[in-house]
Amino acid sequence: MRYASLASGSKGNCHALTDGTQTLLVDTGISFLQIRTRLETLGWDLSHVKAVAFTHEHSDHIAALPVLLKRTNWSILATEDTLQAICRIQSVEVPAHRWIPLRPGHATRWEGWDILPFSTPHDAVDPVAYRIEGPTGTIAVVTDLGHPTALVVDHCQDVDILALEANHDIQMLREGSYPPTLKARILSRIGHLSNEATADLLSRVRSARLQAVILAHLSEQNNDPALARFTTEEALRGTGIPIHVATQRTPLEVAAQP
Asked: Residue 42 belongs to what H/E stretch?
């Protein structure tokens, strides 16, 4: 199983998972053109993409939906509340035959993979993260959450690859230029994970199985890749587990060894 971050940050998010024959996207917060271009940069075939699983309705996760509804036949995986919110925001309608309904806490079988959405604490109508199990590996994509709940920790256990939010450094955010209301939202328990919270989560899910960690959804104003890496490396000290940092503009690929 291979994972790729096509874009990660407040300006747009898109993750991709493939077993070499089929590809699933998690969120499409960048343009359809950029999705195609960045897949090609990695040597991934756009024709292998079969579906998109949405985490929630915020704009940096759904931007490409209107175009991909017109230009592709990809299936749309989402909870009912999230789908309704996305359609309302984007003024689109997803045909019933293209929607694969999801329920948090219930795995859905899709093309030989088990796709398990699980609830996250975020300021959206029905936000989820994903634990995805295929014949060649298990990957969790966990971003946009204000704190690491016990449920989140449980679903990050025993995976091969973990893409995990490390949104901000608390001091940088507090001293930065964001208005007080936005700072409060980000720091809240339904906001975004700090580097310190991410490190704490990693200290609880580190295992012999975990092959790679991808730090995702870093704020360009309130974080620094080197700082995020340093903070989280402390949590994995002595394990040899590599840490990669996903960025807004450059695609990143990580493969799990069977």
From this structure: helix 32-42
Q: Find, among 60, 72, 5, the residue nearest to 29 by Cα.
A: 60
Average pLDDT over residues 208-228: 97
- Give the chain's mean pLDDT: 97
Looking at residue 20, its amino acid is G
pLDDT at 257: 86
Q: Which residue ranges make up each domain of the chain?
A: 2-253
Displacement of CA 229 from its chain's centroid (Å):
18
Q: Give yes or no for a contact between 56 and 86, defined as CB atoms under 8 angstroms apart.
A: no
Rounded (10°) CA dihedral 252, 145, 211, 111: -80
Q: Is the pTM of the predicted complex or chain greater than 0.70? A: yes
| CATH hierarchy code of domain 2-253 | 3.60.15.10
